[in-house]
Amino acid sequence: MSELRARRADAERSRAAVRQAAIDLLAERPQASMRDIATAAGVARQTVYAHYPTREELIAAVIGHIAADVTSQVDRLDPEKGLPTETLGHWLDLLWEILTKYPILHTDALNGAPEVDPQRHAPITDRLTRLIERGQAAGEFDARVPPAWLGAAVIGLIHVAAAEVAAGRLSATDARRAFHTSALHLCRPDR
């Protein structure tokens, strides 16, 4: 390996360490400083600023990393296969796994970043809307409301469930169950 490649690999490792430290630390302390993130990453503050000159750029990198991971996880589930209700159940489980993996998603740490709204949910909502459309066409989901609204409501429910856990009003197990039950109930038509 050439010296240049070694330096690039080292720079990428420190960049990834800073990004992961931000994901972990900001989930616990949304207002943590760049110095705190550097300490958590085991690098000098100057190293953080060399990779991410501003907090906004670091937050954008965090969002980009999470969005790429979420997209790869969501791609495992094909919204066009299986019974819509069963497939939705798998989606709900996956959404909960994502929220559990990235507790930063239900903190204020990412608020205010211009990339948050378009990037945070697009990988999920586009595919979820397709699944809901298919479920509505099959008569398994309520067709009286737009599929995009049902998808947004499902995303809203998971944030409510996470907030209840964070506030100590529900255990993670109870919140997951409440989310799953409520989302399925919301999507089903009246019978």
TrEMBL record:
UniProt keyword annotations, A-Z: DNA-binding, Transcription, Transcription regulation
DNA-binding region: 33-52
Domain HTH tetR-type stretches: 12-70
A GO MF label: DNA-binding transcription factor activity
Superkingdom classification of source: Bacteria
One matching Pfam family: TetR_N
Protein name per the record: HTH tetR-type domain-containing protein
